[in-house]
Every structure is written in structure tokens, then in C-alpha cells.
Amino acid sequence: MEFDKIASGAWNPNLAVPLAHSSFNVYDILAQNDPDELVVINPATGAIALSYKSDLAIFEASSIVSIEAQSVQSNLSLAELGLSSIGSLTGTISDNNSKIIEIATENGIELHSMHINNGLLTIQVSTHLKHDVTINLTFPEVKKSGVPVTKTIQLNYNGSLPQTAVTQVDLNNSDADFTLGNTDVNKLAILINTTISGTGNEVSGSESISFDFQFSSLDYQHVKGYFGQNNIGNVADSILLRIFQNATEGYFEFTNPSVNFFINNDMQVPSQINFHDLKTINIQNGQELSLVGYPSTVNINSPTSMGQSASTTWTLNTSNTQNLNTIITPTPKFFNFDVSATINPSGNPNEVNIIERDDRLTLSAEVSLPLEGLAYGFRLIDTVDFNLVEDPSNIESVLLRLYVNNGFPVQFVTDIIFADENYVPVFSVFTSPKVVVASATVDGQGKVNQNTEKITDALLTPAQIAQLGNVKYILINGVAQTLNALNGQIVKFFDTYKLDLKLSTQVQGKIGL
Amino acid sequence: MKYSTIRWTVFICAVTLVFTFLSMPFVKAQKNLTLYSMNNLAQSHYLNPAFSPAAKGYIGLPLGMHSIGATNSGFTYNQLFKSRPQDDSLTIDAENVVRKLGKINFVSVETRNELLGFGFKVKDMYFSFSATNRLDVNFIYPKELIQFIVEGNGKSFIGERASFNKLGVEANSYMEYAIGFNKKVGVNEKLTVGGRVKLLSGIANIATKESKLGIHTDETMFDLTVDGKMRVNSSGIKPFFDTTGTYNAIDAIKNAYSFKNIGIALDLGATYQVTEKIAVNASLLDLGFIKWNEGNANFVSNDVNYTFSGVDAKKFFSDTTDSYWDQLEDTLTTIFSANENNDSYSNMLYTSFYIGGTYQINDFLSTSATIYNQIIRTSYRMGVALAANLRVRNWLTVTGKYSMYGRSFSNLGFGLCLSPGPFQLYVISDNVLGFGAQRSAKNFHINFGMNFLVGNKSQKGKKASTKIE
Questions:
Q1: Smallest CA–CA separation between B215 and chain A, in Å?
Q2: Counting CB atoms within 10 angstroms of each CB, which of A135, A348, B237, B249 has the fewest?
Q3: pLDDT at residue B86, as a whole number
């Protein structure tokens, strides 16, 4: 037995093993980990739509009605005080007067009533009377717990003129009525009782008592009135249509796309949403396509009582637009919205406007793409990093076998290119692009009625394996299309569709012993 | 019937038997077929209790009988290695080995060491005693296992099940304490019957009770399905794999005489002198069992039927990588687990039987034909031998043998028995080519020993007789 003569040998096993398998349904393929994208299934039919949502705008009530700090003056003449020009005054003279002050507002806002959360009224009094004056102020329509707000101001003549006094009235948690008994708006009545105690000095005849009413830090809980026919905000926003994100080109036609708007209104104010510019944008080629022939305004519902909300849904589809499916066809990336909101679009309504401080009008949009239509030339490109750590000299050939059981009406043709670090092709797996996923067949309604199986073999020859050391990337370049898309075949996607994949390999080894 | 007709009938029967059994699975180690033909040797009664030596008695001292045989039924050295054309180096020719293998192949080793033996005659009876250590190890390997390893599963096994059924080990080590007896019976005392009762003390055992294993490769996507079930009993081998216990060699040695693993067996034999020149014989050996009670480790696997279709890609990428492999490992551990117990079990011995016939040509030369059969579990193995005995001198007998067994058809046996004075020395091999032409041999065997004879009748010029004394 000449064991010392045993030289190196060779072991040439041929190993056939499964590598991976998986099953994909519509959720796996279409739904990404993105809260803004949903796969929506019709529970009755199982039909699928892709839904892309976004919150577009929020209009705050506080931006509609706000009362700025302001100062209002008023004056009591000598006659109103019950005085005339006399040499000296020693007795006491009292008189009652009523004054009206007006609260200034913006944008034609008419205040009827308000519950004031926070507020301060600073009253400055000034007079040239050389006598003691007692002033009792009553605001009959500013009440706290049903009791009118009152304030007494005392002026005691000490020889200096003018006599002045400043006092503050806390308006927190008070209710104000600005209608003067439903006869006017923005007005507030003040009852002024004055008592002049003569000091023996003269009354020259030119004296008066002037008042300066300063409202500040007014914050309301709710306000009633008419808030004007005003634009309450403009918003521009867009929704990313992720299904097209990796698509570089292609024709994609949805037969029944729609854009749904969801408006939630807390304000008891007639309102309207105006759509100025709805368009799709393809940021890769800059193409912008505007939606035309659509109703550009929608009247939105408002609640009937405070603390309530009212919802309005408005849908744009191929029935009420001229070119909705056309502007989506060229695989755009964004759906762009430019909207504004108007309150009291028809002017002063029969019913009073009511808003609470935290009321909002919110607007969200959803682009819904029912998966029904056709697509072709939908190019998908992906690059996979590759770094062979094993010694390829132990491998003579490699067969990769892909099995696809396709329940989707989509075909995929691809080529797989092994490229170097500069993305220069080293070799291609197929001599020409190959159908690796064959489309399932459909019935007359476009629904799949028969899955299709396809087995694709990719053989790496010894020469190709020897070059694997130079390969740094695997380029997968494929084109997808729906069944008979070029002939206008419409297909539909349902939640029952599945794609089963299996990948196996057969390796011929040549291992030196 | 004329003598010439009888000889021709015997010859035709022998040839017919040879060619009939050529088609059968010849497997197994050497079976002392040459020794069976040398029935003048004291130890020949181990193979047929009806045999007894020409001497009145013997003692297996100072050497006793020692036999060792090994067989690889699958392939030879020359079939495993081939020369490179550019130089005289050798390379492994695994593909050739696969071509040469039978459906089921064996590597076996058998040893027999007589520690004490003696026998003596009283009138027409013969008594004997022996204490022998016996070791029988068989590793059974199916062809498709080797083919699977050499070729992989991608050539011959696409769409097929690679069957590894019957893969296993059968090993038996025990001490045999035997008392033998034979006697001539019948009117003409042409018939001799004998038997040996043997008490056995088991030392170690491995018994593959059930061995079903296979791997199927799916024709289309190469899914691998492993199926099978294994059931292995063992005794006395825990020191080789149990790292938690403490063991010592003394315990193993004690098993040789402690009878904790006790067994009993029976050998039966008969010879019949048909005519003055023709005799026939038959024996049944090792009809018995051992009950293994101590140091047992029995393994029963689950019924396995597991298909691997590749990694579940969705699960792989959603779990952490380690989590996925941990789960796979847990699954495989559960599927391929085995239950262990230390229950007692019994094992039948490897029963064998010989059938033979001899023809005395003249005073010096005789011929014999022997068929050997053995049953190991559900396997049945056969061998055939043709021998010629030549008494060169009173003290020198030479035996030549040709046999077929272990899928080997080139086994030339040789026996030499020297009986100088009271001693009897012998050396026997069932395949001398195993020494001289190892590279092309599948079998290796040698049997040697020395006895002290009492009343050796061969010293007195008796012929090399087929008659059993």
C-alpha cells in the first residue's frame, strides 16, 4: 500500500439546493412602511385601491376673530353734569348720563356678544373741575354671573389741575353684549352717575369730565356676531405618490382615480373651500399637468351648536373633472394642492356666526388610485451591492433557477448585469432581456382567473465565474407591464392575488484535495 | 451406482451451487472456511460440533487459537486509487469506487481469541471446553450514501430519493464459555451429532434495530426532503460519548465475566459418512442471544419527514438575522431529536450455518465443498468454498481453498498444519492474496494457533481422512 505516493486529488460534487422562498400578497408588494400610504380593500368585492393621504391645512378660529387692544374716549360736558358757569359752587350736584362706546374690529367683523375669558378695562378719568367728584360707572351689558360690572371713581380736589384718576376693571369670565338690546353691533353702553361736591371754587364754564376706556388682553371663550366675508387662509401642499417613486418612465393609466377631500368644521360659520391649482408634478422631468374642468369651490357643512363638528367630503373623479386620469398617467411623483378657505361666502347670513376660541377648520386630502387600468414601459431599476468573499476557483458553474407562480396580471422582463466598481458591465446573465414573471390571465372583467407559472434559469459559466472577483454591483433593469397593455387591456387588482417565488441553485464544484 | 457417476454428480452439484449463488449478495468477513475444511484441527469443532480431532485430546496451550478477519465488500485499494499518467503518484478515484459498490456494502472486522480450550475423547464421545473472546464489528453503508457524498445530489439524484436505508453499525463483543459434546450414533455409527452449549457474558454491543434514511431532491426546484427513522441500541459504549459520567477500563473488563449482560447460545452439528469416500456435514452456529442490561444507551429518533425549501425570505428580513437562524436551529433540533433510554434489550447472535461435503480421492488427498450462510438481522449472506486437503507427511497437512464471498471472487485460501510431536501449530488464511496482493483484495484473514495434543493418531500414519474420529 503506497500511501506515501498519494498526491492531491479533486472532488467535483454537484449540489442542488433551494435558497429562498416567499409569498407576497398585495400588502407586501404595494404597502410600504409609510403611514401616509394605505392599501384599501373594498370589503364587498376585494378590489384594491392605493390611498395616499395628507393633512393639507388647519384654519384656527383665533385667526378669524381677534380684538386688538384699543382705547375709546368719552366725555361728559358741563351741561351733562348739571352745571353752568357760576362764581362759586358750594353744594352738591348729581346727574346721570348714558354713553355709548364702540369697539373697533377688523375685516368688517360685527360683534354681537362674547364670553370673555380674560380681559382688562383700564379707565382713566380727567377733569378741570375744582371740586370733588364721585363717579359711578355701570356697564349694564357687561356682566359677571349675571350682575353688571360697576366701578366707582373718586376725585378729591387738592388745588392741582387737572384732576386725574386711573382705575381698572377685571373683565375675566364676564359676558358682554354689544348689541344695545339687539339694535346695533360693536357697541357698549355705559351708565355714568356723577356727584359733584362744591369746594367753594368757581365753575368757569369750560370744565368737563373726560374718560379714556382702554381694553387690553381680551381673550374670548366664544363670540357671536358676523365675521365678515373673508378669506381665512391660503395653503399649498402636495402628496407624494410613492408607487411611482422608483419608476423612471412608463405609461400608467388608472381608469377610476379620485381625489377625496375631507373637511372637518368646528365653527358655526358658513364656509367654503376654494381650489385654485390642482396639478401633478414630475420632479424628474419637471412636467406639470393641471387639472381642469373641475368644480373649484365647495360649500362645507357647519355644526348647529357649540361644541359640535360637522364633516364634509368632496370627491373629484373622472365624472366631475375633465382630465383627472390624464394628469396621473405620466407617472408623476407629487399631487399638488393650492387651496383657500372663505367664511360667509354669500355675505351676512340669516344666522349669527358663532365660534369658540379652539375651533378649527381642518382640510385633508386623499389621492385614491383604484388598481384598475393598464401600464406599460414601467421601468424599474435597482442596484445591489456585491462582494464575493469566497474563492471562485472552487466553482465550475452555477445555475440559478427562479420559479414564479404569479397571480397578478403583470409581466416583468428583466436583464441582470454584473458590473464593476465604475458600473461598467462585466457580463450579463441573459443574452437578451427575459420574461422572468409571466402575467396571469384575466377574464372579461379584467380579474385574474388563472395563475401562471414560470421557471427561469440563469447559468453562470466558468468564464463568468472567474470574473466575479471584479464585480461590485448587480444591476437589475426591468420593465413591467400589465397583461396586453399595449392592446389596451384593462386589468383589475384584488386582494386575493398572490405571487409565490422560489430561488434555487445548482453548483458544480471543483475542489482540490 | 458407479463411483465415476457419483463423482460427476457431486461435481455438477458443486458447480451448480457455485453458479447459483454467484448471483446472490455475497457479503461478510472471512468465515474460517479453510478451517472448516481442516477438520483434523482441534479447533475445527468450533465450526461444527460434530468434528473432533484425530488426537485423543488437546489443550489450547500455549497459544490457543486466534483469528482475525476484515472485509470491505465495497471496493479495493486498486479501485480507490489510480495512477496519474504523468508520474507514478496516486489520486483518489472516487467515481470508480461508486461504480464498483454494491447496493449495500460492508466493512467488517471479526476476531476470535481463545483464552482457554481443551477437549478429550471417551470411547465414541468427545467432550470439550473453551473460553473465547469474540468481537464482531460491521459497518453497513449503502452505495447511495457514498454516491451522494462523491457526486452531490445534483447528478443522479435530481427527482430521486437518495436512499441511505440500512446504514448502521452492528457490533458485538462478548466472552463465550462453551461446553461441547459429540457422539457417533446409529447402527453403523456413520452419523455423528454434536452440540456446544455456550454461556455468554456481553462486553459491548451496538445494534442498529431500524435504519431508514433518505434525502429526496425535488426535480424542479431542488427542495430537499429528509425522511427516516433510526433506532439504535447500545451497551457498554457510553465512555465514548458520555462526557458527564466517569468510567474506567476495569468496568469494561469485568463485563467479560460478570454476566451482567448474560446470554446463551447453542451450536449444533452433524456429519454423515455416506460412503467410504463421501461424507456430508452441516452445522448451525450461534443460535442464541444476549440480554443487555448494564451500561445501555438506546436511541430512538422521531419519525422524520422534513422538507427544506430555502430560507423564508419575508421572515428572514422581518426578524433579526440571529433570531431567524435561532428559530431554524430550534426547529431542526426538535425534528431531528432522539429519545434516549437505558432499557434492557435482547439481541440475537449472528446465526450462521455451514453445509458441506467431502470426497476422499485417495489416502492423501481429499476435496471438499462448503456453503456458508449467515443471518444478520434481515440480511442474509452467503459464501461458497472449494477446498483440497493434502497430507504431505504425517505431521504436515496443507489445504488449498478457493472461495467466493463479500462480492469477491478471487479469494485463495491456504492452511498449513504442522504436528511435530505433541504440538500442533497451524496458520490459516481464507485469502492469502490479502497478504500478497493487498491492493486488489477485499478480504484479509488469518487464523493461527498452537495446541498441545494427547494421543495424536496422525503420527501413526493415518490417512488425511474425511472420517471424523
A1: 12
A2: B249
A3: 75
> What is the rounded distance in angstroms from the CA atom of residue B347 to the CA atom of residue A310?
88
Q: Which amino acid is at A413?
A: V
3-state secondary structure of B35: helix
User: Reduced to 3 states, what is the DSSP secondary structure of residue A5?
Assistant: helix
Nearest CA among A324, A371, A411, A368 for reference residue A491: A371
Q: Which residue of B has its CA nearest to A19?
A: B310
Q: Which of A259, A258, A491, A498 lies closest to A375, judged by CA? A: A491
Tell me the ipTM for this assembly. 0.75
Of B217, B314, B316, the CB nearest to A16: B217
Q: Nearest-CA residue of chain B relative to A454?
A: B220
Which residue in chain A has the smallest CA separation from B149?
A13
Element (H, E) at B318: helix B313-318
Please say whether the beta carbons of B169 and B208 come within 8 A. Answer: yes
For the stretch A9-61, pLDDT in tens is 778 899 999 998 989 887 777 664 444 557 788 889 889 888 888 888 888 88
Q: A283 exposed, middle or buried (CB, 10 Å; 0-12, 13-18, 19+)?
A: exposed
Q: How far is CA A77 from CA A87, A96, A127, A207, in A?
A: 18, 12, 10, 7
Chain B hits for A23, CB-CB cut-off 8 Å, are: 314
Rounded CA gap, A169 and A153, in Å?
11
**pTM score:** 0.69
Q: Does B221 touch chain A (CB under 8 A)?
A: yes
Contact B222 A16 (CB under 8 A): yes
Contact B180, B126 (CB under 8 A): yes
Q: Which of B 296-325 lie inside 8 A of A, CB atoms?
A: 308-314, 316
Amino acid letter, B427:
V
Beta strands in A68-131 (DSSP E): 70-76, 92-102, 110-127
Domains in chain A, CATH or no CATH each: 3-33+376-512 (2.60.120), 48-63+227-370 (2.60.120), 70-225 (2.60.120)
Average pLDDT, chain A: 88
The rounded distance, in Å, linking the Cα atoms of B131 and B15 is 38
Q: Output Rg (C-alpha) for chain A, integer angstroms.
A: 41
Amino acid at A335: F
Q: Which of B414, B419, B368, B413 is nearest to B393 (CA)?
A: B419
DSSP string, B72-137: ESS--HHHHEEE-SSSS-EEE-HHHHHHH--SEEEEEEEEEEEEEEEEEEETTEEEEEEEEEEEEE
CB atoms under 10 Å from CB of B106, counted, come to 24
Where is average pLDDT lowest: A189-203, A390-404, B236-250? B236-250
Residues of A within 8 A of B154 (CB-CB) are 13-16, 506-508
Share of chain A above pLDDT 90, in %: 50
Distance from CA of B437 to the nearest CA of A (A): 9
B467 band by pLDDT with thresholds 50, 70 and 90: very low
CB A14 within 8 A of CB B154: yes
Look up residue A180 and give its amino acid. L
**3-state SS, residue A63:** helix
Q: Give, rounded to a whole angstrom, the gap between the first and last alpha carbons of chain B.
A: 27
DSSP class of residue A411?
A: E
Q: What's the DSSP call for residue A439? A: P
Give the residue-averaged pLDDT of B246-270: 83
Bridge partners of residue A511, in order along the sequence: A11
- Separation CA B449–CA B64 (nearest Å): 5
| Cell, residue A343 | 367664511
Joined grid coordinates for residue A87: 362764581
Residues in chain A closer than 8 A to B312 (CB atoms): 20-22
Q: How far apart are CA B29 and CA B218, in angstroms?
A: 38
Whether the per-residue pLDDT at B15 is higher than 60: the answer is no
Measured between beta carbons, the chain A residues lying within 8 angstroms of B89 are 5-7
